[in-house]
Protein backbone atom coordinates (compact mmCIF):
# COMPACT_ATOMS: atom_id res chain seq x y z
CA UNK A 1 0.00 0.00 0.00
CA UNK A 2 1.25 3.45 -0.89
CA UNK A 3 1.95 5.67 2.13
CA UNK A 4 0.47 9.16 2.06
CA UNK A 5 1.23 10.57 5.50
CA UNK A 6 -1.20 12.86 7.22
CA UNK A 7 0.36 16.18 8.29
CA UNK A 8 0.57 15.03 11.91
CA UNK A 9 2.36 11.84 10.83
CA UNK A 10 4.88 13.80 8.77
CA UNK A 11 5.43 16.09 11.75
CA UNK A 12 5.98 13.15 14.12
CA UNK A 13 8.47 11.58 11.70
CA UNK A 14 10.40 14.82 11.38
CA UNK A 15 10.56 15.31 15.14
CA UNK A 16 12.12 11.85 15.48
CA UNK A 17 14.69 12.76 12.84
CA UNK A 18 15.48 16.11 14.46
CA UNK A 19 15.60 14.99 18.11
CA UNK A 20 17.96 12.44 19.64
CA UNK A 21 15.46 11.50 22.36
CA UNK A 22 11.78 12.21 22.16
CA UNK A 23 8.48 11.13 23.66
CA UNK A 24 5.62 10.93 21.19
CA UNK A 25 2.45 11.05 23.26
CA UNK A 26 0.15 10.14 20.37
CA UNK A 27 -3.32 8.90 21.17
CA UNK A 28 -4.46 5.56 19.83
CA UNK A 29 -5.29 5.54 16.13
CA UNK A 30 -2.85 8.22 15.01
CA UNK A 31 -0.52 5.77 13.24
CA UNK A 32 2.52 6.16 15.49
CA UNK A 33 4.02 2.85 14.30
CA UNK A 34 4.24 3.77 10.62
CA UNK A 35 5.41 7.31 11.51
CA UNK A 36 8.22 5.83 13.58
CA UNK A 37 9.16 3.19 11.01
CA UNK A 38 9.36 5.88 8.34
CA UNK A 39 11.81 7.82 10.50
CA UNK A 40 13.81 4.68 11.29
CA UNK A 41 14.08 3.85 7.59
CA UNK A 42 15.42 7.31 6.83
CA UNK A 43 17.88 7.17 9.72
CA UNK A 44 19.18 3.82 8.48
CA UNK A 45 19.24 4.40 4.73
CA UNK A 46 19.23 8.16 4.05
CA UNK A 47 20.84 9.85 7.04
CA UNK A 48 23.10 6.87 7.92
CA UNK A 49 22.62 7.99 11.51
CA UNK A 50 21.44 4.62 12.87
CA UNK A 51 22.99 1.18 12.59
CA UNK A 52 21.16 -1.29 14.83
CA UNK A 53 17.61 -0.51 15.91
CA UNK A 54 15.84 -2.23 18.81
CA UNK A 55 12.08 -2.08 19.33
CA UNK A 56 10.74 -2.93 22.81
CA UNK A 57 7.02 -3.71 22.78
CA UNK A 58 4.25 -5.67 24.51
CA UNK A 59 4.43 -9.34 23.54
CA UNK A 60 1.49 -9.45 21.12
CA UNK A 61 2.68 -6.24 19.46
CA UNK A 62 6.21 -7.64 19.20
CA UNK A 63 4.86 -10.83 17.64
CA UNK A 64 2.65 -9.16 15.07
CA UNK A 65 2.24 -5.40 14.76
CA UNK A 66 5.68 -4.13 13.73
CA UNK A 67 6.25 -6.84 11.10
CA UNK A 68 2.71 -6.37 9.80
CA UNK A 69 3.22 -2.60 9.41
CA UNK A 70 6.44 -3.20 7.45
CA UNK A 71 4.62 -5.60 5.12
CA UNK A 72 1.68 -3.22 4.75
CA UNK A 73 3.48 -0.16 3.36
CA UNK A 74 5.35 -0.12 0.04
CA UNK A 75 8.06 2.28 1.21
CA UNK A 76 9.00 0.00 4.13
CA UNK A 77 9.00 -3.36 2.38
CA UNK A 78 12.80 -3.55 2.18
CA UNK A 79 13.26 -3.39 5.95
CA UNK A 80 14.31 -6.66 7.59
CA UNK A 81 12.93 -7.46 11.03
CA UNK A 82 14.06 -10.13 13.48
CA UNK A 83 11.77 -11.12 16.36
CA UNK A 84 13.73 -11.77 19.55
CA UNK A 85 11.04 -13.98 21.05
CA UNK A 86 10.56 -17.52 22.33
CA UNK A 87 13.10 -19.61 24.23
CA UNK A 88 16.55 -18.31 25.14
CA UNK A 89 18.09 -20.25 22.24
CA UNK A 90 15.53 -18.84 19.81
CA UNK A 91 16.19 -15.33 21.07
CA UNK A 92 19.93 -15.72 20.68
CA UNK A 93 19.53 -16.96 17.10
CA UNK A 94 17.27 -13.99 16.34
CA UNK A 95 19.90 -11.58 17.67
CA UNK A 96 22.46 -13.05 15.26
CA UNK A 97 20.16 -12.75 12.24
CA UNK A 98 20.80 -10.19 9.52
CA UNK A 99 18.23 -7.47 10.10
CA UNK A 100 17.54 -3.75 10.27
CA UNK A 101 15.28 -3.94 13.31
CA UNK A 102 15.20 -6.35 16.20
CA UNK A 103 11.98 -6.46 18.22
CA UNK A 104 11.81 -7.84 21.76
CA UNK A 105 8.98 -8.06 24.26
CA UNK A 106 9.42 -5.88 27.34
CA UNK A 107 9.52 -8.89 29.71
CA UNK A 108 12.86 -9.88 28.13
CA UNK A 109 14.56 -6.49 28.45
CA UNK A 110 16.40 -7.58 31.59
CA UNK A 111 17.60 -10.75 29.84
CA UNK A 112 18.74 -8.75 26.79
CA UNK A 113 20.74 -6.31 28.87
CA UNK A 114 22.29 -9.27 30.68
CA UNK A 115 23.30 -10.85 27.37
CA UNK A 116 25.28 -7.81 26.19
CA UNK A 117 26.20 -5.77 29.26
CA UNK A 118 28.74 -3.09 28.37
CA UNK A 119 28.84 -4.40 24.77
CA UNK A 120 25.27 -3.20 24.15
CA UNK A 121 24.98 -3.02 20.32
CA UNK A 122 21.79 -1.03 19.71
CA UNK A 123 22.42 2.65 19.04
CA UNK A 124 18.71 3.37 18.47
CA UNK A 125 15.91 2.14 20.72
CA UNK A 126 12.16 2.52 20.26
CA UNK A 127 9.97 1.83 23.30
CA UNK A 128 6.44 1.05 22.18
CA UNK A 129 4.22 1.94 25.14
CA UNK A 130 6.71 4.00 27.12
CA UNK A 131 4.29 4.16 30.06
CA UNK A 132 4.96 0.46 30.74
CA UNK A 133 8.30 1.66 32.17
CA UNK A 134 6.64 3.98 34.70
CA UNK A 135 7.66 1.88 37.72
CA UNK A 136 11.16 3.02 38.70
CA UNK A 137 11.57 -0.12 40.85
CA UNK A 138 10.79 -2.57 38.05
CA UNK A 139 13.50 -4.84 36.68
CA UNK A 140 12.85 -3.70 33.11
CA UNK A 141 13.41 -0.03 34.02
CA UNK A 142 16.55 -0.72 36.04
CA UNK A 143 17.99 -2.86 33.24
CA UNK A 144 17.38 -0.29 30.51
CA UNK A 145 18.67 2.47 32.76
CA UNK A 146 22.03 0.68 32.98
CA UNK A 147 22.57 0.74 29.21
CA UNK A 148 20.89 4.08 28.54
CA UNK A 149 24.26 5.90 28.27
CA UNK A 150 25.14 3.53 25.40
CA UNK A 151 22.03 4.46 23.41
CA UNK A 152 22.37 7.33 20.94
CA UNK A 153 18.72 7.76 19.98
CA UNK A 154 15.60 6.85 21.93
CA UNK A 155 11.96 7.16 20.90
CA UNK A 156 9.22 6.61 23.46
CA UNK A 157 5.71 5.99 22.14
CA UNK A 158 2.55 6.08 24.22
CA UNK A 159 -0.99 7.37 24.20
CA UNK A 160 -1.19 7.36 28.01
CA UNK A 161 1.93 9.10 29.39
CA UNK A 162 0.65 9.46 32.97
CA UNK A 163 -2.09 6.88 33.48
CA UNK A 164 -2.23 7.26 37.27
CA UNK A 165 -0.92 10.79 37.78
CA UNK A 166 2.18 12.93 37.37
CA UNK A 167 4.31 10.64 39.56
CA UNK A 168 4.25 8.16 36.66
CA UNK A 169 6.27 10.56 34.50
CA UNK A 170 9.62 10.43 36.23
CA UNK A 171 10.84 6.99 35.09
CA UNK A 172 9.76 7.27 31.41
CA UNK A 173 11.21 10.78 31.10
CA UNK A 174 14.43 9.61 32.75
CA UNK A 175 14.84 7.00 30.01
CA UNK A 176 14.50 9.79 27.47
CA UNK A 177 16.91 12.38 28.92
CA UNK A 178 18.75 10.53 31.72
CA UNK A 179 17.35 12.85 34.36
CA UNK A 180 18.14 16.23 32.82
CA UNK A 181 14.62 17.64 33.12
CA UNK A 182 12.87 15.96 36.05
CA UNK A 183 15.90 15.04 38.14
CA UNK A 184 18.38 12.20 38.42
CA UNK A 185 16.42 10.41 41.17
CA UNK A 186 12.78 9.77 42.02
CA UNK A 187 13.49 11.24 45.47
CA UNK A 188 14.63 14.51 43.96
CA UNK A 189 11.58 14.57 41.68
CA UNK A 190 9.23 14.03 44.61
CA UNK A 191 10.92 16.65 46.75
CA UNK A 192 10.74 19.22 43.98
CA UNK A 193 7.15 18.76 42.87
CA UNK A 194 5.26 16.94 45.66
CA UNK A 195 4.48 17.09 49.36
CA UNK A 196 4.20 13.94 51.52
CA UNK A 197 0.64 12.98 52.41
CA UNK A 198 -0.42 9.98 54.49
CA UNK A 199 2.47 8.10 56.06
CA UNK A 200 3.31 5.32 58.50
CA UNK A 201 6.59 6.12 60.18
CA UNK A 202 9.03 6.94 57.39
CA UNK A 203 6.88 5.32 54.67
CA UNK A 204 4.78 7.79 52.66
CA UNK A 205 1.67 6.23 51.12
CA UNK A 206 0.66 9.11 48.89
CA UNK A 207 2.10 12.34 47.60
CA UNK A 208 0.29 15.61 46.95
CA UNK A 209 1.28 17.94 44.15
CA UNK A 210 2.77 21.27 45.11
CA UNK A 211 1.12 24.41 43.81
CA UNK A 212 1.89 24.91 40.12
CA UNK A 213 3.67 21.53 39.96
CA UNK A 214 1.74 20.54 36.84
CA UNK A 215 2.69 23.61 34.83
CA UNK A 216 6.31 23.38 35.93
CA UNK A 217 6.57 19.70 34.95
CA UNK A 218 4.90 20.31 31.59
CA UNK A 219 7.22 23.21 30.89
CA UNK A 220 10.26 21.13 31.84
CA UNK A 221 9.54 18.34 29.34
CA UNK A 222 7.91 20.42 26.61
CA UNK A 223 10.93 20.35 24.31
CA UNK A 224 11.14 16.53 24.22
CA UNK A 225 7.43 15.63 24.37
CA UNK A 226 5.00 15.89 21.48
CA UNK A 227 1.35 15.34 22.31
CA UNK A 228 -1.44 14.75 19.82
CA UNK A 229 -5.05 13.85 20.47
CA UNK A 230 -7.04 11.85 17.94
CA UNK A 231 -10.02 14.19 18.16
CA UNK A 232 -7.85 17.07 16.90
CA UNK A 233 -6.66 15.24 13.80
CA UNK A 234 -9.11 12.51 12.85
CA UNK A 235 -12.69 12.79 11.75
CA UNK A 236 -13.68 9.81 13.86
CA UNK A 237 -17.30 8.74 14.19
CA UNK A 238 -18.76 9.58 17.57
CA UNK A 239 -17.99 7.50 20.64
CA UNK A 240 -20.96 7.35 22.99
CA UNK A 241 -20.36 6.32 26.61
CA UNK A 242 -23.22 4.84 28.60
CA UNK A 243 -23.46 3.42 32.08
CA UNK A 244 -26.15 0.75 32.36
CA UNK A 245 -27.22 0.44 36.01
CA UNK A 246 -27.58 -3.10 37.31
CA UNK A 247 -29.55 -3.58 40.52
CA UNK A 248 -28.61 -6.15 43.14
CA UNK A 249 -31.63 -7.43 45.02
CA UNK A 250 -32.48 -9.96 47.72
CA UNK A 251 -29.75 -12.36 48.80
CA UNK A 252 -27.13 -10.83 46.46
CA UNK A 253 -27.53 -7.38 48.00
CA UNK A 254 -27.40 -8.85 51.51
CA UNK A 255 -24.18 -10.76 50.81
CA UNK A 256 -22.55 -7.71 49.27
CA UNK A 257 -23.38 -5.54 52.28
CA UNK A 258 -22.24 -8.29 54.67
CA UNK A 259 -18.78 -8.57 53.09
CA UNK A 260 -18.46 -4.79 52.90
CA UNK A 261 -19.27 -4.42 56.59
CA UNK A 262 -17.92 -7.57 58.23
CA UNK A 263 -15.12 -8.53 55.76
CA UNK A 264 -16.32 -12.14 55.94
CA UNK A 265 -18.94 -14.35 54.33
CA UNK A 266 -19.16 -17.83 55.82
CA UNK A 267 -19.86 -20.88 53.67
CA UNK A 268 -19.94 -24.56 54.58
CA UNK A 269 -16.91 -25.49 52.47
CA UNK A 270 -14.76 -22.31 52.32
CA UNK A 271 -15.20 -18.75 53.54
CA UNK A 272 -14.82 -15.51 51.60
CA UNK A 273 -12.48 -13.29 53.63
CA UNK A 274 -11.18 -9.79 52.86
CA UNK A 275 -8.13 -9.13 55.04
CA UNK A 276 -6.92 -5.84 53.49
CA UNK A 277 -8.49 -2.84 51.79
CA UNK A 278 -7.06 -3.93 48.43
CA UNK A 279 -8.47 -7.44 48.80
CA UNK A 280 -11.82 -6.04 49.91
CA UNK A 281 -12.14 -3.70 46.93
CA UNK A 282 -11.25 -6.52 44.53
CA UNK A 283 -13.73 -8.94 46.08
CA UNK A 284 -16.47 -6.31 46.08
CA UNK A 285 -15.85 -5.71 42.38
CA UNK A 286 -16.13 -9.45 41.82
CA UNK A 287 -19.39 -9.64 43.75
CA UNK A 288 -20.74 -6.68 41.80
CA UNK A 289 -20.16 -8.73 38.65
CA UNK A 290 -21.88 -11.82 40.02
CA UNK A 291 -19.36 -14.16 41.67
CA UNK A 292 -16.45 -14.15 44.09
CA UNK A 293 -13.44 -16.36 44.84
CA UNK A 294 -13.36 -18.00 48.26
CA UNK A 295 -10.20 -18.78 50.25
CA UNK A 296 -9.71 -22.05 48.35
CA UNK A 297 -10.04 -20.32 44.95
CA UNK A 298 -13.46 -21.82 44.53
CA UNK A 299 -16.16 -19.66 42.98
CA UNK A 300 -19.23 -18.57 44.90
CA UNK A 301 -22.08 -17.46 42.66
CA UNK A 302 -23.82 -14.30 43.84
CA UNK A 303 -26.18 -13.17 41.04
CA UNK A 304 -26.84 -13.21 37.28
CA UNK A 305 -27.94 -9.58 36.95
CA UNK A 306 -25.08 -8.57 34.66
CA UNK A 307 -25.56 -11.65 32.48
CA UNK A 308 -29.21 -10.68 32.10
CA UNK A 309 -28.20 -7.12 31.19
CA UNK A 310 -25.68 -8.42 28.62
CA UNK A 311 -28.37 -10.63 27.12
CA UNK A 312 -30.58 -7.58 26.63
CA UNK A 313 -27.71 -5.73 24.93
CA UNK A 314 -27.02 -8.65 22.58
CA UNK A 315 -30.68 -8.83 21.63
CA UNK A 316 -30.79 -5.08 20.95
CA UNK A 317 -27.70 -5.31 18.69
CA UNK A 318 -29.80 -7.10 16.05
CA UNK A 319 -27.07 -9.49 15.01
CA UNK A 320 -24.20 -6.97 14.95
CA UNK A 321 -20.96 -8.20 16.57
CA UNK A 322 -20.32 -7.17 20.17
CA UNK A 323 -17.01 -6.86 22.00
CA UNK A 324 -17.04 -7.63 25.74
CA UNK A 325 -14.25 -6.88 28.21
CA UNK A 326 -13.99 -8.99 31.35
CA UNK A 327 -11.52 -8.75 34.24
CA UNK A 328 -12.21 -11.92 36.25
CA UNK A 329 -11.90 -15.50 35.05
CA UNK A 330 -15.15 -16.44 36.72
CA UNK A 331 -16.87 -13.70 34.69
CA UNK A 332 -15.40 -15.20 31.52
CA UNK A 333 -16.60 -18.69 32.46
CA UNK A 334 -20.09 -17.52 33.28
CA UNK A 335 -20.38 -15.51 30.05
CA UNK A 336 -19.24 -18.52 28.02
CA UNK A 337 -21.85 -20.75 29.67
CA UNK A 338 -24.68 -18.29 29.06
CA UNK A 339 -23.54 -17.41 25.52
CA UNK A 340 -21.97 -20.45 23.78
CA UNK A 341 -21.42 -18.40 20.60
CA UNK A 342 -18.79 -16.27 22.38
CA UNK A 343 -15.13 -16.55 21.35
CA UNK A 344 -11.97 -15.65 23.28
CA UNK A 345 -9.05 -14.05 21.46
CA UNK A 346 -6.28 -16.67 21.39
CA UNK A 347 -2.52 -16.17 21.33
CA UNK A 348 0.06 -16.42 18.57
CA UNK A 349 -0.94 -17.55 15.07
CA UNK A 350 -4.40 -18.58 16.25
CA UNK A 351 -4.89 -15.08 17.62
CA UNK A 352 -4.03 -13.61 14.23
CA UNK A 353 -6.69 -15.86 12.69
CA UNK A 354 -9.18 -14.68 15.32
CA UNK A 355 -8.46 -11.03 14.49
CA UNK A 356 -9.13 -11.70 10.80
CA UNK A 357 -12.33 -13.57 11.63
CA UNK A 358 -13.53 -10.73 13.85
CA UNK A 359 -12.80 -8.10 11.20
CA UNK A 360 -14.75 -10.23 8.71
CA UNK A 361 -17.77 -10.35 11.05
CA UNK A 362 -17.37 -14.10 11.61
CA UNK A 363 -17.38 -13.80 15.42
CA UNK A 364 -20.66 -12.57 16.96
CA UNK A 365 -19.37 -12.09 20.51
CA UNK A 366 -15.68 -11.50 21.21
CA UNK A 367 -14.46 -11.74 24.81
CA UNK A 368 -11.26 -9.88 25.69
CA UNK A 369 -9.23 -9.23 28.82
CA UNK A 370 -7.98 -5.61 28.83
CA UNK A 371 -4.41 -6.65 29.75
CA UNK A 372 -4.08 -8.90 26.71
CA UNK A 373 -6.03 -6.74 24.27
CA UNK A 374 -4.75 -3.32 25.20
CA UNK A 375 -1.94 -2.67 22.70
CA UNK A 376 -1.48 -3.03 19.00
CA UNK A 377 -4.66 -4.89 18.03
CA UNK A 378 -6.54 -3.55 15.03
CA UNK A 379 -10.13 -4.69 15.52
CA UNK A 380 -11.90 -1.73 13.96
CA UNK A 381 -12.76 -3.28 10.58
CA UNK A 382 -15.74 -5.27 11.82
CA UNK A 383 -19.27 -3.90 11.88
CA UNK A 384 -19.18 -3.89 15.70
CA UNK A 385 -20.95 -0.87 17.16
CA UNK A 386 -21.09 -1.94 20.80
CA UNK A 387 -18.34 -2.41 23.39
CA UNK A 388 -19.41 -3.73 26.81
CA UNK A 389 -17.40 -3.60 30.03
CA UNK A 390 -18.82 -6.51 32.02
CA UNK A 391 -16.33 -6.00 34.88
CA UNK A 392 -15.10 -2.58 35.98
CA UNK A 393 -11.36 -1.88 36.38
CA UNK A 394 -9.12 0.72 38.02
CA UNK A 395 -6.50 1.21 35.26
CA UNK A 396 -7.01 4.22 33.00
CA UNK A 397 -4.30 3.00 30.62
CA UNK A 398 -5.95 -0.38 30.12
CA UNK A 399 -9.36 1.24 29.74
CA UNK A 400 -8.26 3.73 27.09
CA UNK A 401 -6.15 1.26 25.15
CA UNK A 402 -8.87 -1.37 25.16
CA UNK A 403 -11.59 0.99 23.93
CA UNK A 404 -9.26 2.20 21.19
CA UNK A 405 -9.13 -1.27 19.64
CA UNK A 406 -12.45 -0.41 17.96
CA UNK A 407 -12.79 3.38 18.16
CA UNK A 408 -9.82 4.33 16.01
CA UNK A 409 -8.86 5.37 12.50
CA UNK A 410 -10.61 3.09 10.02
CA UNK A 411 -13.87 2.65 11.92
CA UNK A 412 -16.88 3.67 9.83
CA UNK A 413 -19.67 4.07 12.37
CA UNK A 414 -20.40 5.34 15.84
CA UNK A 415 -19.26 3.20 18.77
CA UNK A 416 -21.23 2.84 21.99
CA UNK A 417 -19.13 1.94 25.06
CA UNK A 418 -21.41 0.45 27.71
CA UNK A 419 -20.35 -0.13 31.31
CA UNK A 420 -22.46 -2.52 33.38
CA UNK A 421 -22.42 -0.79 36.76
CA UNK A 422 -23.95 -2.51 39.77
CA UNK A 423 -25.75 0.18 41.76
CA UNK A 424 -24.43 1.05 45.21
CA UNK A 425 -21.28 -1.06 44.75
CA UNK A 426 -17.56 -0.71 44.14
CA UNK A 427 -18.35 -0.56 40.40
CA UNK A 428 -19.41 3.05 40.86
CA UNK A 429 -16.16 3.90 42.67
CA UNK A 430 -14.06 2.38 39.89
CA UNK A 431 -15.89 4.30 37.16
CA UNK A 432 -15.52 7.57 39.08
CA UNK A 433 -11.81 6.89 39.61
CA UNK A 434 -11.29 6.46 35.87
CA UNK A 435 -13.02 9.76 35.22
CA UNK A 436 -10.75 11.55 37.69
CA UNK A 437 -7.62 10.01 36.19
CA UNK A 438 -8.78 10.91 32.68
CA UNK A 439 -9.12 14.54 33.74
CA UNK A 440 -5.52 14.53 35.01
CA UNK A 441 -4.16 12.97 31.84
CA UNK A 442 -6.09 15.44 29.69
CA UNK A 443 -4.22 18.28 31.42
CA UNK A 444 -0.88 16.69 30.49
CA UNK A 445 -1.89 16.05 26.89
CA UNK A 446 -3.07 19.63 26.44
CA UNK A 447 0.02 21.10 28.07
CA UNK A 448 2.49 19.52 25.64
CA UNK A 449 0.23 19.25 22.61
CA UNK A 450 1.96 19.94 19.33
CA UNK A 451 0.85 23.32 18.03
CA UNK A 452 0.80 22.36 14.39
CA UNK A 453 -1.32 24.13 11.83
CA UNK A 454 -4.39 21.97 11.45
CA UNK A 455 -4.91 20.92 7.85
CA UNK A 456 -8.03 19.16 6.72
CA UNK A 457 -8.30 17.59 3.33
Task: Explain what the structure shows.
With 457 residues, the protein is of the alpha/beta class. The chain has 2 domains: 227 residues, Tandem AAA-ATPase domain (Rossmann fold, 3-Layer(aba) Sandwich); 205 residues, P-loop containing nucleotide triphosphate hydrolases (Rossmann fold, 3-Layer(aba) Sandwich). The protein has 18 helices and 21 strands. The strands form 6 sheets. A 7-stranded parallel beta sheet has the order 3-4-2-5-6-1-11, with helices on both faces. A 6-stranded parallel beta sheet has the order 12-21-20-17-19-18, sandwiched between helices. A hairpin with a 6-residue loop joins strand 13 and strand 14. Helix 1 crosses helix 2. The relative contact order is 0.12.
Short description:
The protein has 18 helices and 21 strands. The chain has 457 residues and is of the alpha/beta class. The protein has two domains: 227 residues, Rossmann fold; 205 residues, Rossmann fold (3-Layer(aba) Sandwich).
Amino acid sequence: MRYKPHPYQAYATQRILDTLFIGLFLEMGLGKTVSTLTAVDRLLNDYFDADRVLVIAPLRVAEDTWAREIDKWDHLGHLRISKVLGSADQRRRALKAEADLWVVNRENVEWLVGEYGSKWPFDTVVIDELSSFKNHQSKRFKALRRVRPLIKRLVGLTGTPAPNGLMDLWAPVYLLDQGERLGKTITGFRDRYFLPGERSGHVVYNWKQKQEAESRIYEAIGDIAVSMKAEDWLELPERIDRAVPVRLTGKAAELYKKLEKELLIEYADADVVAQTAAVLSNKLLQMASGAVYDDDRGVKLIHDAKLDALEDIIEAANGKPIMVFYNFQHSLSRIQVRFPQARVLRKGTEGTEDIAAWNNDEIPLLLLHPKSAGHGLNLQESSCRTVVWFDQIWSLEEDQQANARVHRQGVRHNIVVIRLVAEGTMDEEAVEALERKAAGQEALMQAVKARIERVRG
